[in-house]
Amino acid sequence: MINIGEYSELNVVRKSDLGYMLTDGKEEVLLHFKQALCEHEVGDKLKVFIYSDKESRKTATEQTPFITLESSDFVKVVGVIPGVGVFVNINTPKDILVSKDYLPFNEKFWPQVNDTLLCHLKVRRNNLSAKPLGRFDIIGLHKDVIYAEGEKKEGYVCKIADGGIGIVTKDLMYVFVPNIQFRGSYRLGEEVVVTITKALDEEYYGMLNLQKEDMIDSDKELIFEYIKKHNGRIRLTAKTDAKTIEHELHMSKKAFKRAYGGLYKDRVIDFDDESTFLVK
Questions:
Q1: With 27 labelled, which of 68, 157, 186, 252 sits at a CA distance of 20 to 30 A?
Q2: In this predicted model, which residue has the larger pLDDT, 48 or 143?
């Protein structure tokens, strides 16, 4: 049986104007001339990958896809359709959809063109689609890889959650970065460099923070923009508890106090017993 998303060994039965017609003895599929690695003759036996064309017809290629139903790998985003999903290149003539069902609800966190996702293939409604690997899919892929604290590793954002973001490194290891260990926002598929902070069970924890000097400037800007957004006055001061600061600004109280003190020293802000406000 010829199945979409799988390899099949088929015989060439004839040539058509478009390519070679292949069969398993029961069903025929087209191998377009452009998808053949060389010229073939009637009777040749070929190993081909089966995908569906734009009309959802089974079609063959001798090109090797980057991912299959059984194997996963990194693939590049080549298109984005709001409300639908993103398309990735898997080395077949037809780019493959990653449905919005597998992407963040907020589209500002969707991948952009040239971002990278770790995916495998699925068959949906007789068509191929791609699904990003989740945390538990990634954990355990390479148990022989060991990271040391302080190591910097290149990777891609693979999960966005309330408590932080997940990173899959180029070694296929999962690293979780809590909210207090990064500034700003990241999108799925975005390339990052993560610093390993500790290992826990089968996953690692990391940080995406800048160097201390750059981080202070970044934190000052974040606090300044937060105050502006709240009409120039906020109910946060240097005495506010750490939990409230982390909830409102996604930074530690220590980082908040450093940046807060810098803004006060620069006469950007002032405060009273209950609030902080911009200096006019």
A1: 68
A2: 48
